[in-house]
Each structure stands twice: as structure tokens, then as C-alpha cells.
Amino acid sequence: MIRSELVQRLADENSDLTPLEIERIVDIFFTEITSQLANGGRVELRGFGAFTTRSRDARTGRNPRTGEAVSIDAKKVPFFKPGKEIRERLNAK
Fold first, then answer.
1. What pTM did the predictor assign?
2. C-beta separation of 51 from 34 below 8 A
3. Cα dihedral sign for 49, 50, 51, 54?
4. Phi/psi of residue 89, nearest 5 degrees
5. Across residues 48-64, what is the average pLDDT?
6. Is the pLDDT of residue 93 over 80?
7. How far is 46 from 83, CA to CA, in rounded Å?
8. What is the pLDDT of residue 71?
9. How far is residue 9 from each of residues 24, 40, 67, 84, 85, measured CA to CA in Å?
10. Dist CA 4 CA 33 (whole Å)
11. CA atoms of 28 and 5, how far apart (whole Å)
12. CA distances from 90 to 6, 13, 48, 82, 93 (A)
């Protein structure tokens, strides 16, 4: 599902809201998650999962085109840990 599909789905289920209001809600939702992660925080959505950041150390990589060694700086990357309910739903038999 992409963002526009999410907005459309929410619009279908909430006819009392305008598409512009739904777009704002989705935008605020993603902005707040991103801001919290950028500040080193954690975002937990009960029943769904938790978003955190993890640190990756600096390393030497390779340019796939030339094979030349390239220095890659240390960085933080987003990490998602699914909650128990979503894991159970995905693995239901």
C-alpha cells in the first residue's frame, strides 16, 4: 500500500472528513513519527509495533561499478519491531 492508497482508504471509511483533512492527518502522523525518531526517541503503536533507530558504524564499502573502495560514514537507520498481534496475524495457519 502506498500513501495515496492509505489516504483513499481513510476517505472511504470516513465520509465526514474532507480529503484535504485526511491528507493533513496522514501528513501529521508521519511527520510526528519522523520527528520523534530524529530526536532519538521511540514510537510505539500498541498492537502494531515499535519504531526506533539503530546506529551503524562507519565502514569501507565498494563502488559496484568500479570496484573502488568507498568510505561510508556512521549513521542512524530506522528500525521497526512488529508487535505480538501483527506477528501472530502474519503467521496464522
1. 0.77
2. no
3. negative
4. -65, -40
5. 95
6. no
7. 7
8. 96
9. 14, 31, 46, 25, 22
10. 18
11. 17
12. 20, 24, 12, 10, 9
Query: Which sign does the torsion angle of CA 39, 44, 45, 49 carry?
Result: positive
Place of cell 465520509: 15
Residues 6+ apart with CB under 8 A from 56: 74, 75, 76, 77
Q: Which one, of 54, 49, 43, 42, lies nearest residue 82 by Cα? A: 49
pLDDT of res. 92: 86
Return the amino acid letter for 57: D
Specify the amino acid at residue 61. G
Beta bridge partners of 75: 56
Phi first, then psi, for residue 73 (nearest 5°) are: -70, 160
Mean pLDDT of the chain: 94
3-state SS, residue 80:
strand
pLDDT, position 56:
95
Indicate if the alpha-carbon torsion angle 65, 71, 75, 79 is positive or negative. Answer: positive
User: What is the rounded average pLDDT of the residues 31-53?
Assistant: 95
